[in-house]
Amino acid sequence: MKQLVQFSMVLIILSLAACSPAKTQSPVLAQTNVSPSPSQEAKPSPSPILNSPIRSVDFENFTYPEIDSRGKFMFKGGHEPTDDDPRGFVDAIYGDVNGDGKEEALVVHTQSIRGSAIPYFVYIYTMNGDKPKLLWSFYAGERGDGGLRRTYAESGGLVVELYGRDRGVNGGTSSEEDNFGVCCPKFFTRSRYEWRGGRFRLKSKEGAIPNPQGNAAYLPLLERRYS
User: Is 116 helix (H, G, I), strand (E, B) or coil?
Assistant: First the structure.
C-alpha cells in the first residue's frame, strides 16, 4: 500500500511538470546568445570645400609690383607685352598659408633672360573683399645658383624649397654651396613660414636635404612637361 501511494505521488508530480509553462530565457542570456550583426564601417565625412574666390583671379593677365622697386609690370596671356624684361612663365598654386581656413594664391614667375640663370619670383595673394591683396613677394634665386624647387601650403603655413645648402629667400645663404652647377644640385633647403603679426616669419629650416632628382628646375613645371 505504501509503495502504491509513493508511485501515485510521482505520477502527479510528473503531470504537473508537464503542464507547467516553459521557462523563458532571460533578456540578458538571450542577448549573449545572439550573434551581433556586422556594423557598418564608419566613413569619414568629406572635407568642406574651401571658399576660394582667389581662384577667380586671372594671374596670367594681371599687374604685379616689382619686388625690388616701386614699379609695376603687366602680364598678358602669361607674358609681359615687352621684350625688355620678359617673364617666361606664370604658375599659380593654391592653399591656406596664413591659417585663416581660406585659400591663398602662390604665384610663381620665371624670368627669361636668354641664358641659364632663369630667376624665380614668388607673389602671395589673398582676397580682401572682392580684390586680391598682396601678402608677400620674394626673390627665390635663379637656376644658375640654386633657385626655386617648389613652394606650397602645409597645415596652414607656407613651405619654400630652394636648391642648395642652407639657402634663403631674397638671395640669402649662410654656408658655402656645393659644386652642383646648373644641372644637378646635391641638396635643397626646406623652410617653413607662419603668418604672425601681419607677416610671414621663419618657423623652421632644414638646410641640407639630399636631392635625388639631380636637377635645378622648378619641379611643377617639369611634372607638367613630362607627365
Answer: coil
